[in-house]
Every structure is written in structure tokens, then in C-alpha cells.
Design brief:
The chain has helices at about 5-40, 50-55, 85-100, 115-125, 140-145, 155, 185-205, 220-230, and strands at about 45-50, 70, 105-110, 130-135, 160-165, 170-175, 180-185. The chain has about 240 residues and is an alpha/beta fold. It has a single domain (about 25-230), classed as Glucose-6-phosphate isomerase like protein, domain 1 (Rossmann fold, 3-Layer(aba) Sandwich), CATH 3.40.50. The chain has a five-stranded parallel β-sheet with strand order 2-1-3-4-5, sandwiched between helices. A two-stranded antiparallel sheet has the order 6-7. Strand 3, helix 4 and strand 4 (about 130-135) form a beta-alpha-beta unit. Helix 1 packs parallel to helix 7 and helix 3 packs across helix 4. It starts with a helix and ends in a 12-residue tail after the last helix.
Length: about 240
């Protein structure tokens, strides 16, 4: 009999492979949209409320990642993500400081797709003329009623949807006594975003645009390189290289 850890490894790696195949076409489409924006010196904006912020941070200021990625950071850690109006206030403050421009893209991450803050962020950005890429569990977002008075979940608001294929409760492993563990949304979500970023890089290369990539600050000369790469986005990034 396999251990819970062995079962999680087997099931989650199989889920990861299936998520890659399921989302391949969407990743290709979104990479072209983001690539075209980056080629015009655009910024990619990212928001994830609560634990989903961890997934968004995976591509912000990342070694080997695009320098032009800016995160909308919730100082409450998602504690009041269902307070109607809070997401609009949060994204409005961010917009005033860092600017969200028409033609740019925003990735909004919400596993359930129902909480108010990510929905309000997506709606605000959409009104500003940004393309919304939602990262969610389509199964949950489709069947779980939103708390937002607009009535739509993330999959319905987003222009393009990346599906993490998560199950209700976000856990794969039955550990007995009616309890489950082994969450998958972070593992799959972070992988999908990295696949997307690599496809953006491939699009930029194919169209002969320069790559605004960060290097690991542990490498010689990397700090100077990163400052130079980030210079053009200096006043538009919520997280910058020091």
C-alpha cells in the first residue's frame, strides 16, 4: 500500500501533465498577447488574493524571468478578500501609482474563482482596456456561487482562462476520517505561469524583440544587469530590483 506522500506524488504529477496538455492552446494565445505588449514596453500585471498571491509572486522579480512583471500586493493577505468594494479600492490605488494601460495584460489568480477581490480587480482592469487572463479551477469557478453582487465568477469575466484542473477543496489525498490533504493549486498554477512565461520569451525571440530578462543576483555582474534591464519600467513596478 502506497503512503499518502507517494499517492500525492503520483496523482499530482499526472495532474500536472494533464494540465499542461489542457492549457497548451490557451498558453500559446496568451503568450502572443503578452509578447506583443512587452514588445511595446508594456507591463504584465499580476494579482492573486490570499494564498493565490504565492503563485503570482512566482513570476515577479524572478531570476530568469521577465523584468516587466508587476504585482498587486494585498497588505491584508486576503483576509478581507470578500469585503465588497475592497478589490476595487486596492486596484485603484495600484493603478494611480503604477499605471495600468490599455493593451496590457493582467493575470488574475483565484482557485475558487468566487471571491470578491479578484473579481473586482479583473473587472476594473477590463474597463481600463487590459486583457484579463484568469487562472482558476474551472470546476470550482463554474459550480461555486460568487459572493460578489455582479454574479459572475472569474472564468466568466476573464478573456482567457487557464484551468489548474483542481477539485473542490483543492486536495487530492484521502487521509481518513473524512479528511483530505495534498493541495495542487500552487504546484499546477506556478507551473502553468512558468510555461506561459517561456512561451512569451519564445514569441519575443521569434519576432526578434529584445528579452528583458532578470539574472540570478548570485551570478557575477547580475545586480548591474538587472538594474539596467528594469530601468525602463522603473516607475511602473511594484517590486523592483534593488
Amino acid at each position: 500500500m502506497s503512503s499518502p506522500a507517494d499517492s500525492f506524488y503520483e496523482k499530482s504529477t499526472a495532474l500536472l501533465a494533464r494540465a499542461r496538455d489542457t492549457n497548451a492552446a490557451v498558453i500559446t494565445r496568451c503568450a502572443a498577447l503578452i509578447g506583443a505588449s512587452v514588445a511595446q514596453d508594456g507591463v504584465l500585471h499580476v494579482f492573486g488574493s490570499g494564498h493565490s498571491e504565492v503563485i503570482g509572486r512566482e513570476i515577479i522579480g524572478r531570476a530568469g524571468g521577465l523584468a516587466c512583471v508587476s504585482g498587486i500586493i494585498d497588505p491584508t493577505g486576503g483576509f478581507i478578500e470578500n469585503l465588497v468594494g475592497y478589490g476595487t479600492e486596492l486596484v485603484g490605488r495600484y493603478d494611480r501609482q503604477y499605471q495600468m494601460l490599455p493593451g496590457e495584460c493582467m493575470i488574475v489568480i483565484s482557485n475558487s474563482g468566487k471571491n470578491s477581490a479578484p473579481l473586482e480587480v479583473a473587472l476594473y482592469a477590463k474597463q481600463k482596456g487590459l486583457t484579463i487572463i484568469g487562472l482558476t479551477s474551472v470546476q470550482m469557478s463554474t459550480h461555486t456561487k460568487t459572493v460578489h453582487p455582479g454574479g459572475q465568477n472569474l472564468h466568466a469575466i476573464a478573456d482567457h482562462v487557464l484551468d489548474n484542473l483542481g477539485v473542490p477543496g483543492d486536495t487530492l489525498i484521502d487521509i481518513g476520517e473524512g479528511q483530505f490533504s495534498g493541495p495542487t493549486s500552487t504546484l499546477v498554477g506556478a507551473t502553468l505561469l512558468n510555461l506561459l512565461m517561456l512561451e512569451v520569451i519564445a514569441w519575443l525571440q521569434a519576432h526578434r524583440h529584445p528579452l528583458p530578462l532578470f539574472k540570478s543576483q548570485n551570478l557575477p555582474g547580475a545586480i548591474e544587469h538587472n538594474r539596467k534591464v528594469a530601468a525602463k519600467y522603473r516607475h511602473r513596478l511594484s517590486r523592483q530590483v534593488a
